[in-house]
Structure of Wyosine [tRNA(Phe)-imidazoG37] synthetase (Radical SAM superfamily):
Amino acid sequence: MSEEALEKAWSNHSILWKENVWVYPVISRRAGGISIGINLNPDKHCTFDCAYCQVERSVPGLSLKNDVIEIEKELDKIISAYEKNGLADFVSFQNVEAEKRMIKDICISGDGESTMSPIFPQVCAMMRRKQDELSQYPLQLTLITNATLLDRENVRKGLKILTEKRGEIWAKLDAGTENWYKKIDRSRIPLEKVEQNIEGAIRDFPLRIQTMLCQVQGEFPSDEEIQFYIQRLQKIYAICPQNFLGVQLYGVVRHTAIPDVLPLKKEFFQNVAEKIHAVLPVSVQIF
Ligand code: SF4
């Protein structure tokens, strides 16, 4: 196996696996192995319209009702395939060595904002049950979210279950100023509301911040923007330091929703990480 095969698997986040509609395996750099994704948005609905979104929106989504029983069946199929041969025959994982194909987590993440789904709590409960049934693997449960709906009662109900045992929320905070937020996340929901929701969630649940750093049509995050962003991190951290699990800075690796969304240099990421470290005792990972 080569580093090349691993790089290829990392950048290939196709969410198609056999006939499955909702559940798919990926090799995830952030999970450090195989992450089983649950896509609760085959319809591609989202409360954000990120400039860097990698979901193929020129092809319409499926109008399909999420069904927790069907989702569980799809998950079971992937687990059986994993137990048979470690998913070695899955085309996206070809030539990736076995130790990089260890199953690490089940993650709600897909083609839109998962917390929009009315069956979000039921899916969390099913995942939590699977985590116990598959106790031979120390599975983490993760929700990747843009945080816009974290204050909904239905969503909080799900989060309570999801985070009972090795469960984490990975919440998107891409900006410090409303200006950059409008440019990068292009949502009608104000940035202030996103921050409030993250603060409300971290009070009760373990949470990691995920931040996309990229150049958008010739503009990149200014020093002032980064300063405001770090101030927001400080406010969130102050709410509940023990629930603040860290920050993940990541960049674009695949095609994006609009043209001219480009990666930034490694030094840019390192510089932001140093600035965070200067004021917060938290882990900062760069992907
Ligand atoms: S939140 Fe995720 S799915 Fe929604 S537009 Fe942004 S990148 Fe795409």
In short: Residues 46, 48-50, 53, 55, 112-113, 146 surround iron/sulfur cluster (CB under 6 Å).
